[in-house]
Amino acid sequence: MKILYEDTIPRGFDYFSSLGEAVSYNAATLRADDVEKCDYLAVRSTTSVNETILSKAHTLRCVATATAGSNHIDKTYLEERGIAWRDAGGCNAIAVAEYVLSVLLVAHRDNKLDLSRIRVGIVGAGHVGTSLSRLLEALDIAYVLNDPPRREAGDPRHFVDFNDILTCDVISLHVPFVKEGAHKTLNLIDEDALQSLGADTLLINACRGEVVNEKALMQRLTAGSAPTVVLDVFDNEPDIDTALLEHLWLATGHIAGHSVEGKLRGTQLVYEHFCELAQKPVKLAMDDFLAAPQPISFMPRDPSMEALNWDEVISLLLSIYDVTIDDQDFRHAMQAGNKFAAYRKAYRVRREFNAFTIALSGVVSEGILRQLTGLGFIIETL
Ligand SMILES: NC(=O)C1=CN([C@@H]2O[C@H](COP(=O)(O)OP(=O)(O)OC[C@H]3O[C@@H](n4cnc5c(N)ncnc54)[C@H](O)[C@@H]3O)[C@@H](O)[C@H]2O)C=CC1
Ligand SMILES: O=C(O)C(=O)[C@H](O)COP(=O)(O)O
């Protein structure tokens, strides 16, 4: 059994060589000949899987992506050919949620908003949207959800209409890129939607660039009373329009989901899909490759209070993940003429909150314990 895997898949060789012959490829140079004799193809979002690349793939049984999004895979073509496809839904939901929370914390610190007063509109209540809602609940930040497909499917959560989302202080987008149909997301944030946003709105897009109409966004950002905008994703990646960057409050290069855990979880899920299809036992787990959770020093200033104050939340969480570091690194890389793809390949090591333990001595209120565990920390009571 031959497994061809993209070289950006962490631990790809360790995982896939346990199942058969494992060969890596570079997405920029992949050709149809490379896929000719392979049985399983493991990709990330940087490989377009389509008729051209699969034209000679006559032994291929399955294409699996180690990512949540799967819009880079031509599923119709795969289904016509009888080739299975799988995604790694949920692998990096925590990472993206922590990215958005980091944006919110920096905005509060910089007096752009007050987290005690705002309402966050989450568009797309799937893995990422739900993870984000949990973090917001842990910190008692108000939010509403919009997700017509889930509402129609009977999801019992409370959903609001898209027009209500446009009135929120913060709008955070977490939908798949869907080009057509009743729930298409292409240009979901169009010229009209952008016109309705005022200078007090913070718009965050960490799903797919095509969900926001970038031309209309550029016009809106260069007109009066423009909203504050944070983009992790862009139209036409990796050849993005860098002219947009100077108008964005924060800009990062499609790394919201790139925590160590988020990427490795993607590999684990792809490996498990291949095990299932090849009827082989699952022998490897993420803990075989991840360092054990590390202690982080933190003690609430007043452990008897029902909640942490914003200063201590900000200091704790930004010490683990500060999105402004990514913003600076990305802008420097783009100014230096570095390629978008090269920047992403060299992305720094970033751990999720669940990779840290907090040792608490003495009595700490139920409220603070709820907050810290809700954020994902492992609590040790001394
Ligand atoms: N920037 C990054 O690094 C990352 C980006 N993503 C992107 O975020 C997307 C969402 O990720 P997940 O939450 O894991 O996917 P998911 O499939 O679990 O959730 C997506 C949700 O969006 C909803 N939805 C679909 N069309 C909608 C519409 N028109 N309006 C409102 N809601 C709609 C779906 O019903 C679903 O509940 C992915 O498809 C991917 O494109 C995901 C992970 C990392
Ligand atoms: O999971 C997704 O969907 C994403 O957008 C990934 O974070 C993209 O990562 P790469 O596959 O482009 O490294």
UniProtKB/TrEMBL annotation:
It is found in: Cytoplasm. The active site is at 208, 237, 254 (proton donor). Its EC number is 1.1.1.290. Residues 308-366 form the Erythronate-4-phosphate dehydrogenase dimerisation domain. Residues 112-255 form the D-isomer specific 2-hydroxyacid dehydrogenase NAD-binding domain. NAD(+) binds at residues 147, 232, 257. Pathway: Cofactor biosynthesis; pyridoxine 5'-phosphate biosynthesis; pyridoxine 5'-phosphate from D-erythrose 4-phosphate: step 2/5. Its main location: cytoplasm. Substrate binds at residues 45, 67. Catalyzes the oxidation of erythronate-4-phosphate to 3-hydroxy-2-oxo-4-phosphonooxybutanoate. Belongs to the D-isomer specific 2-hydroxyacid dehydrogenase family. PdxB subfamily. Homodimer. This is Erythronate-4-phosphate dehydrogenase.
